[in-house]
Every structure is written in structure tokens, then in C-alpha cells.
Amino acid sequence: MRRKAGYWLKKKRQAAALTQKDLANRLGLDYYTFISQIESGHARVPSSLFLAWAEALTVDGPEFARTMLEFYDPHAYQALGFESTEISLFTERET
Fold it and tell me: Which superfamily does 2-94 belong to?
């Protein structure tokens, strides 16, 4: 699921017309390679940075957090009463 989340994040970054370096700068990160690691599925967005990422990508904060939760912890997502979204369908078609 991390790879699927990374792919989704990459599409959001590209839609915002940002390079990995641009996004890293907006997030105050020292290394843009962290963005690459997340987009490739080797790392994940820390929950403490969900709102910063949402702002940098011009995505609604709560929606971004729900999306990340659905990717990173689908059992908690369902336990909180959220129903699966089109993200499941999106990622299945893309892989």
C-alpha cells in the first residue's frame, strides 16, 4: 500500500506543478530524496506532517489525512467508520 500511496502523492505533486525539490522546499526538508523515497513506497509521510503536506499540495487537510490513513492503515480507517473510497479502485487500476 505504500507504493500505491506514493503513486497517489506523486500524481498530486505533479498536478500542483511541483518538482520533488520544490515540494521538499515547501515542507522545509533538507533533502528532496525523502520525497523520492515516499513516492517509491520506501517511506511514508509521517502523520505529524499530514497537514503540511496537504497545504504544500493544495489539498484539503482532513481529506489528505483520511486518504493517508486509508493507504497506510486501512483497518483503522474502517474502524473509524469511514467507507472505502475510489482510492481503492484508483490504485487497483494503476498497478
Answer: lambda repressor-like DNA-binding domains (1.10.260.40)
